[in-house]
Amino acid sequence: MTDITGKRVAFLLTDGFEDSELTSPWEAVTEVGATAVLVSPADGRVSGKNGHEQTVDLTVGSADASEFDALVLPGGVVNADNLRMDETAVSFARDFFAQHKPVGVICHGAWILADADVLGDRTITSYPSLKTDLRNAGANWVDEEVVVDAGLVSSRTPDDLPAFNAKVLEEIAEGAHADQTV
Amino acid sequence: MTDITGKRVAFLLTDGFEDSELTSPWEAVTEVGATAVLVSPADGRVSGKNGHEQTVDLTVGSADASEFDALVLPGGVVNADNLRMDETAVSFARDFFAQHKPVGVICHGAWILADADVLGDRTITSYPSLKTDLRNAGANWVDEEVVVDAGLVSSRTPDDLPAFNAKVLEEIAEGAHADQTV
């Protein structure tokens, strides 16, 4: 089993996230020793589309990517559509690429990466509705259960979570990837 | 008052549309003599995000743009996110551009136009979350109540509906626009 004891993983999201895309990777990273931190634009609690509620640990305005080892972006169309309009959230996501740190993104979570302008020549998958947007943002979009491209791990839907979680853990264990960049 | 008697206007949408972005332009075009037709991927009824239900008049698979004078694309993030994955819907929307016919699009409704690949060098507004996607699709995105570009009418949110409806009626009355093209 991968040991990522002491690593700090930020989960960036807002209301309307796909519940299992928060709870499942959260459990996966904490089970093997990492600290998971819920980062969101506003303080208080966030609600998933299916009712899961969780306390925000840190507002994105107070968060600094340099204090984390990896980022996870859950999906949910309403969450992802809103999150990408928050410039501080876009900038926080971009900083993980600038710092060559692993990023896991699933479902609609990838929209914010188009705003962060970090997808040029990167291979990625997502919920299929994002295909054109991610290709237009410069990505090589493919339809696969999980895609790993130099520290960028992506999947399509909650059905892909087992494969997604396994690859996210691997990439976090490996650490920095020079080709994960802006 | 604009008279568009005898014109046929297709409203293309699926479940999760922004209710007022269907009902308000529908009333505006029918009040001045046009026939409005609800076109959707599946037969039966569609439901708006706030509970408005309406019967589908025509499935998009049976619809032909040549039998209509204009297209309206309401928003609602869930509607727009799903509709763009339906290739027949994308093709139906694209045909209005190929036939130089007026298209009104509001809020999240514009995503399907990225998939239809008809936005190169066109000036458009939308719900702000789509800004990057529409720019990456080649559009000149602006933040205005209503934008008219050669038969393409666009607005941002339900607050813009009075201005949107007025310009949609004008463009329908004018008829074909050579620069509305693919």
Description:
- The structure is a homodimer of 182-residue chains.
- With 182 residues, chain A is an alpha/beta fold.
- Chain A is 31% helix and 21% strand.
- The first copy, chain A, has a 7-stranded mixed sheet with strand order 5-2-1-6-7-11-10, with helices on both faces.
- In chain A, helix 1 packs across helix 6.
- Chain A starts with 7 loop residues before the first strand and ends in an 8-residue tail after the last helix.
- At the A-B interface, helix 2, helix 4 and helix 5 of A face helix 2, helix 4 and helix 5 of B.
Briefly, what is this?
With 182 residues, chain A is an alpha/beta fold. Helices cover 31% and strands 21% of the residues of chain A. In chain A, strands 5-2-1-6-7-11-10 form a seven-stranded mixed beta sheet, sandwiched between helices. A two-stranded antiparallel ribbon of chain A has the order 3-4. In chain A, strands 8-9 form a two-stranded parallel sheet.
